[in-house]
Every structure is written in C-alpha cells, then in structure tokens.
Amino acid sequence: MKNLFFLVQLVLITISLSGKSVQKEAAFSIKVEKYTLDNGLTVVLHEDKSDPIASVAVYYHVGSSRETEGKTGFAHLFEHMMFQRSENVGEDQLFKNIQEAGGTLNGSTSQDRTNYYEVVPKNALEMALWMESDRMGYLENTVTQASLVNQQNVVQNEKRQSYDNAPYGFNQGLILKSLYPKGHPYSWTVIGEMEDLTNATVDDVKAFHRKFYSPNNAYLVIAGDYDKGEVKKWVEKYFGEIPKGENVEKRKPMNVTLSETKKLYHEDNFAKAPMLTMVFPTVERFSKDSYALNFLGELLAGTKKSPLHTVLVKDKKLTSRVMARNGSQELAGSFTISVTANPGVNLTEVENAIFEGFAKFEKDDFSEEDLERIRASYETIFVSRFSSVQGKAFTLAEYTMNTGNPQYYEKDLAGFMNVTAADIKSVYEKYIKGKNYIETNFVPKGQAILAVKDAVNAGIEEEDPSKAAEVKTTAVVEEPIKKTPSKIDRSVMPPIGPDPEVTIPKPWTGALSNGMKLMGIKQSELPMVQYSITIEGGRLFDSVEKAGLASLLASMMNEGTKTKTPEELELAIGLLGASIYFSSGDENISVNVSTLEKNFEKTLALVEEMLLEPRWDEEQFALAKSRVINNLKRNAANPDYLAQTKLNKLIFGDNILAIDASGTEETVSAITIADLKDYYNKYFSPSISTFLVAGDVDKSRVEKALVNLNKDWKAKKITVPTFTIPSPPSSSQLYFVDVPGAKQSVISIGSPGIPRTNPDFYAATVANYKLGGSFNGNFNLILREEKGFTYGARSYFSGGKSSGSFVASSKVRTNSTLESVTIFKTEMEKYRQEIPQEYVDFTKSALMKGNALRFETLGDLIGMIRNISTYNLPFDYVKKEEAFLKELSTEKLREYANKYIDPAKMYYLVVGDASTQLNELEKVGLGKPVLIEN
Predict the structure, then answer these.
(1) In this predicted structure, what is the pLDDT of residue 722?
(2) Residues 142-153, mean pLDDT to the nearest whole number
(3) Phi, then psi, of 786 in degrees rounded to 5
(4) Across the strands, what pairs with 748?
(5) What is the pLDDT of residue 15?
(6) pLDDT band at 612, cuts 50/70/90?
(7) What is the C-alpha radius of gyration for the chain, rounded to an integer number of angstroms?
(8) How far apart are alpha carbons 651 and 457 in whole angstroms?
(9) Which helix (H) or strand (E) holds 846?
(10) Among 38, 201, 570, 846, whose Cα sits 20 to 30 Å from the Cα of 173?
(11) What pLDDT score does 9 carry?
C-alpha cells in the first residue's frame, strides 16, 4: 500500500503580466491523503468536519470512447445496470437504502469516464462503501436477461427524451460522426445507437464489467466528516479482496485534422428556428493550447462587446445569442461556434456574419483588461468547486484519474492564469483562421431553403413512432444467484450508526430605516458570499394583456446603468469574477449575486447602481423584446414546453399565472419601454423588499455596506395583489396536443393545489413522497424500473404565497402512452385507498435523516432563509417538520393523500403524435380526449 500526503492549497499561481509576476493566495487549504490498495484501487481521503455528512465518489476510467462500433452506448447502459442489484444488495435496494438513510446518489457517463456517488449523513458512510464495493466486485453474477431488457428500454427512452424528441437533438451525433474518422473513439455519442442498444446481450454486459470495472481501473474518493483510521479499515475490508482485473491500456491523445470543410443540413421536426453549428478540431485537455482556446471562446462570443455578439446580435439582429467554446477532452478537442438564429433567418447570412466577426476580432484586438476579466471568472469557478463535500470529491477524483495527482488543480488553475495575448492569437491562427471545419444546418421541417447553399442532406434516419424500438422480455427461468466466495459476510448490511446531531443554523435579522428587511447566516468555510435582494410582486402586477412585463423588466435591469453602458457594466462585474443578475418569478423580482468575499462591497456598489439608476436603453429594449418573442416562437414545437404551458392554462384558467412567465408573442409585442418605467416607478420599493445573505460576512459588515442603499432608496406604500386559487374540475378530462412525428408522449397530469403558506403544505408534500416524490416513488418504480416505459416519472406539489398546484408527469415511449396514463390514474386511486406501514417508515426515515444534507452550501442556506422570509415561517420550521414526521402514521398519510391528491378531479394532458395515440386514449375511461390547438 503506497501512501502520499498532500497539503492542497488553492493558489492563484504566478500570473505573468507584461513581464511582471504576481502571486496571490486564497485563504484556505485542504489536506488530502492518497494511497493505493494492493489490488490497484486508488484511494483519496479528505476530512471535512463542516457538516455531519460524507460523500463517496467512485470514478471508473471508462466511457463511451472505450466502446467499439456496433456496440455503442454500452458504457452508459452499464451505468444503468450498476443501479439494479449486486450479489448482496437486492433489486432496487441501492436507491432505497441510501434514500432511507437520508442520502442522495446518482451516476453519470461521459466519453472518458463513468462515475457513481453518494452523499449521506456520516452514520451511513460504511453502508455506502459496502454497497459501492459490492457493485464493483460482486455484480456480474446478477446480470440477467430480464434486468438487461428493463434497462435497455429505459435507456432507449432516455435517448428519445434527450435527443430524438427534442429540437436539434440529432446535432451532437451528426457532428461527432463528421468530425472524427470512422472508428475514432469519439465518433459516436455517449447514449449510443438505438440498434446497438437493442442488440446488447448479457454476455456483452458481463464482458464489459469484467474488463473495465476492476479496482485497478477505479478511483475511490471519500470526502466529509469521518474518522480517517476507521474509514481506512472499511476501505480495506470491503474493497481490499476484490481481485485486480486486466490492465486497461493508457491511451495517448488522438487529435484529428480535416482535409476539407463539410457542410450538412437536416430538416428538424421539433425546431421552429434554424440553427448553425461550426466545429473546428483542436487539442486535448491540459495542453497549453487548450487553455488559450478557452480564452478565445470567451473573447469571441462571451460578452456583449465580443465580435460575434456585436455582429450577429447587435448589428445584424440574426439571433439573440451566439456561443463559442472550446471542448478539450482526454483524447482530442474541438472548438464550437453555435447560433440558433431567429425564425426565418437564412443560415447563409449567419455563416457570413461569423466570418465577419472573425475579421472584426482580428482588426479590433482585445485588451489586458479583457484577460483579467476571464482570469477573475476562473478564480471564482475554482473556489466554487470546493463548496460542498460532493464538489470536493468530484474535483479530487477528476484530477487523480486524469493526472494521478489530486492537487493537479493548482497546475490547472496556473494554466488559465498564465494565458497571454500572444497565446490566444497563436491558437486562433493555428486552429481557426482559414482552417477546415464541420458545419451543421438544422432547419424547420419543410424549410430546407434556409440552409446554406452548399450544404448537403445529412441523411439522418428517424424512428417511426408507430414502430418504436422496444426490447421484448422472453420467459426465462432464472437460476438462483451464485455467490462469489468472500472473506467476510457480505450479505449483512453494515448497521447505520446513531443519527448525527444536526445543528440548524440560526439566522440573524435586521431592518433598514427605509423598510427593507435583512436576514443572513455567516458561514466562513470558503471565502465566498451569496446574497439577493428580493422585491415582492413579480408578475402578480402584470396585466393579462401585457403578460411578460415583469420578466422583461428584470431582463432590462441587467442592461447597463445611467453611467455604464451594458458592455461597461458587464466588464465591471466580470473583473470581480462575480455573477450579478436580475430575474423575475411568479411572486417577486430579485437580483442574485455570487462573489468572492473580498469583493462583497464592490459588487454591492454595482447592485445599488443597477437598482437605483437603470439605463432604459432603447436599443437593448428592442433586442430584449426580440429575444423573448423569438424564444417563444422556437418553443412552439417543443413537447416539454407545450406540456407545461397547456397544463398551466388548464389549471389556472384566465388569470396571469395561466400564461407563460415570458408572456406570449402578442402580449410582449404590446409592451413599451414606458410600461417598464411605470412598473419600476410604482412597484420597486424597499418596503416590500428583503436582503438575504449567506457566506463569509457578518451582520455588522452587511449593515455598513448597505448605508448608501438605505439612504438613497426611498420607500413607497405598495399593496401586493393576492391570488384566488381556482377550483379543481368537477370531473377529470383528458386533453391532447398533437406534435406529428413525436418519438415520445409527454404526460402531464395536474390540478390546483394549495399555497406554500397553507399549514398543510408540508403535510401534502410528505403524503406525495412515496407516491411520486423520489426515485423510489411508486410512479417511477412502475413506469421505469418495472415497465421500462420511461427515463423517469415524478409528482410534486409546488406553491407560492397565494397559489399552488399538484403535477404528475413523465415522458414515455409512444406505444406505451395508454398504459402509462392508466397507471398514473390507478396508482393514485390505490394510494388513496391503502398506504402500507412500509411507505410511512420509508418516508419518515428519508425525510428526517435527510436534514443532515440540507444546510451545507451557501445556496442551501439562502434557500432556508428565503423560505423563512417569504412564507413567514418560524426559525425552527425544520424542527416542526421533524415533529410532524415523528408522529406520522398510515392514517395520517392517507388522510392528506385523500385531501389533496384526487385523480377524479384532475386535468390529464398528453403531448404526442395524435395519429397513433389520440383515439387509443379514449380507453383510459375519461371520455373522448379533447384535442387542443397547438
């Protein structure tokens, strides 16, 4: 066993500026120990006593790039298989055990790695290690045809949801296939081809696990509150005897070049606006050029003054946004420019404008100040990665796997900090200017004329909804699982220790003389601060005729001040490495800020300027209106958007909450800049505002920093409108929105609910938890884990101060639509009739023990005090929730389920392909489906 100790200190390494060197250090460090077991498993430990929780992250150095043609999607498919069961952890027990212990878990697959993680109260850490070790070394014997078929269908539905049934969903696959030569490890998507997923066999899956899921190809990182000596014993006990696997080859970079430019187009069934993507091959991660390419992306399109934004958005008004970024990975890299044009724009204009932007970049150059802005943003990003035990575990695991060194992020950060202007100009000449590229043109169905003239049809074959791919289960008598011999009794789950004492942070409160309320929590683990000013009202002040006014106003508040143009304000924020952004919600408008502690006062000065001296820039107003209207047009064929907006209309009727927060094309077109000024002058007041803050600042410092705002922001007397919740329908009815050719059906079922301020709101969310509020909810266990119809199914209550709703939803394979809607309906009916004690026990345990995870990050703390402030909750509301859970019974759970979840008084909405689904849905028993005009 090899041991290495690191004192990992976040350092802003040496920055070379005009021949001078500056070295700055952040105010914290973390101690890391790295060692290797005899079987090759690399272990990294980091103790963090800030909260009584721990994170386990296991990274396997295998992703889709380890697959071969004809067997694509295997890495991701196997990620799903790892959640099924192992020799000593029963079917679906992984999720149940972790959630019942109050934890959370998941996994993900990329082109180069697959990871799994748990975040648990510290008393469940041994259990998490036991389960991770069991699926590393004791899973192969549990892989059966039935379990494989289930996950094949789940992954196929994930592919439909994320790719096949989404606007521009085929773009990534087309780019990879065109950019990389046949057989290159990056020439296919992580999700894989539908045919390959269908053809996967049990032997394929077992062989994949045997080759890549060995300890010598894995990295185990444990971060959090634990005793290191005890954890080392657990690691050796559970992982130490797992046999070493075959050596997995270490690969060198496989960068590519293009011998010619290729231009392709595809008519997209779900797109209402054309999109052009231009991709240049570049270099692998951690190379010197990769850092400069990241800066190049920021300089080309990252700000309002950047050349691509200036030409495409501001001058030519071809789009609302242009994106340029470098994507360097383990084996190769690519530089992508992507433009979703405004509806009706010919992509030849977009292509020409991009090259015009390149010429502007060459002519105008950039300043050292521009580079300082980018460096400042990376400083904040690097600090933020350590804001949670999960973030620490992920960061240490990534660097250890890729470099062998958990503290490599010091060198990584130095790579960014030392980028020079000459480096950026060099990579522009080397990889972009005059080089060959791949260009994809995605245009709305029937509008091929919008593609560039010399683009050729990409020949993408789409799935026929009436013949959706499905792997059929065959009747096989499965033999008992053969147990692998072990030195220990792995069949017994380690006991969960005593629940850790959870200290709920107590906020401080205050008020300014102008009426603004203050609330905050000091937390000094990292030199960071998050804060917000929340102004009550939001779109409750909007009229139906000018819906979207509050949202548009919030957007305009970001567009400069009296003394700063939008570009100057953006630069001022960027130089601080901060994020400052106004946004609008159903019941408020807020400005939200994230910053390093050292820049707290400087960001607040900018917030005051933005709040008290908005610019009301006519040019930006026109661009903002255009952006909103064009986004609404783009969403017109998006099944997810249609499901959300149509269900809201059914639930909330004719009031403002029934309309999309952005408004409609008609209402936004009617809004004038005078309307924005009128709203601002009438409804922006400290008397209905609250300042919320969490981080490395105390009350006295906050009050001192707010002196000017207190003096200059004058109060007004304002009454915020209240909302009357509509009555539910007297009987349920099924509605349908037709999206011809849809590869999935989006099911959304809902009814008016109760507001967050209702004393029963928490009880209602508790009642829903086992029905649809978690992965182990009944909806998900049946529709995903049992049937394989969907990637996920959930239900939830949402509520504001005076409104609320209940929604259950899923995206299912088209030919399972009828059965899926019926399952939703019958499961709600059954849940109202009988709730077993095991449901109560699971709900009680998961929610009570989960409190250990609720107060870790600054975002968590802001969320807690926002709840207290917005809904007038007591400081100990979490303890009151715990008291309710302790007294929970089957009778009480069923009482609230019957009170607030009534499937006989709901709106059932399906968005999908009417030609194959509409008539069938009459069999649900809710009468003839009503076809809603799209």
Answers:
(1) 86
(2) 90
(3) -90, -45
(4) 809, 909
(5) 37
(6) very high
(7) 28
(8) 43
(9) helix 837-849
(10) 201
(11) 46
CB atoms within 10 A of CB 880: 12
The pLDDT, as a whole number, for residue 184 is 97
The tokens of 875 are what? 């400081």
What is the model's pLDDT at position 476?
A: 60
Neighbours of 872 (CB within 10 A): 10
Q: Which neighbouring-strand residues pair with 747?
A: 810, 910
Instruction: Give the H/E segment covering residue 745.
Output: strand 744-752
Instruction: List phi, psi (to 5°) of 513.
Output: -70, -20
749 neighbors 876 (Cβ within 8 angstroms): no
The DSSP secondary structure of 300-363, one letter per residue, reads HHSSTTSHHHIIIIIIS--EEEEEEEEEE-SS-EEEEEEEEEPTT--HHHHHHHHHHHHHHHHH
Tokens of 845: 């345990």
The residue assigned the tokens 């700000």 is: 303
Cβ neighbors of 555 (< 8 A, separation 6 or more) are 582, 624, 627, 628
Residue with tokens 């509605």: 735
How far apart CA 15 and CA 598 sit, in angstroms, is 19
Contact in structure between 1 and 35 (CB atoms under 8 Å):
yes
**pLDDT per residue over 215-229, tens digit each?**
999 999 999 999 999
- Residue 879: pLDDT over 90: yes
Which pair of tokens denotes residue 70? 């004809």
Question: What percent of the chain is modeled with pLDDT above 90?
Answer: 89
Residue for token pair 């010091």: 410
Q: DSSP assignment of 54-79, as one string?
A: EEEEEEES--GGG--TTSTTHHHHHH
If pLDDT is split at 50, 70 and 90, which confidence band does 595 have?
very high
Q: Residue 842: how many CB atoms within 10 A of its CB?
A: 18
Supply the DSSP symbol for 461.
P
Q: Considering only CA atoms, which of 774, 790, 797 is closest in space to residue 823?
A: 790
Q: How far apart are CA 644 and CA 624, in angstroms?
A: 23
Backbone angles phi, psi at 399, to 5 degrees: -70, -35
Q: How many helices (H) and strands (E) does the chain have?
A: 32, 25
Buried b (16+ CB within 10 A) or exposed e, 578-591: bbbbbbbbbbbbbb
Distance CA 321, CA 341 (A): 8
pLDDT band of 19, cuts 50, 70, 90: very low
CB 331 within 8 A of CB 65: yes
Length of the chain: 934
User: If pLDDT is split at 50, 70 and 90, which confidence band does 469 have?
Assistant: confident
Q: How far from 15 is each of 411, 568, 578, 758, CA to CA, in Å?
A: 12, 24, 20, 55
pLDDT at position 63 over 60: yes
Q: What is the pLDDT of residue 723?
A: 83
CA dihedral 586, 590, 593, 594 (to 10 degrees): -20
Measure the N-to-C terminal CA separation of the chain; round to a whole number of Å: 64
Residue 40, helix vs strand vs coil: coil
Q: ∠ at Cα 705 (702, 706), nearest 5°?
A: 90
Per the structure block, which two tokens stand in for 206? 């077992």
103 in Cβ contact with 853 (< 8 Å): yes
DSSP character for 614? B
| 207: exposed, middle or buried (Cβ count in 10 Å: 0-12, 13-18, 19+) | middle
3-class secondary-structure state, position 150: helix
pLDDT beyond 70 at 13: no
What's the number of CA atoms in the CB half-sphere (13 Å) around residue 201?
Answer: 4
Instruction: Report pLDDT for 477.
Output: 64
Give 442's contacts (C-beta < 8 A, 6+ positions apart).
Answer: 168, 170, 171, 265, 266, 268, 271, 274, 275, 276, 277
Q: What is the widest separation between alpha-carbon atoms in the chain?
A: 78
Q: How confident is the model at residue 481 (pLDDT cuts 50, 70, 90)?
A: confident
Report in angstroms the alpha-carbon separations of 854 from 46, 502, 691.
Answer: 21, 10, 21
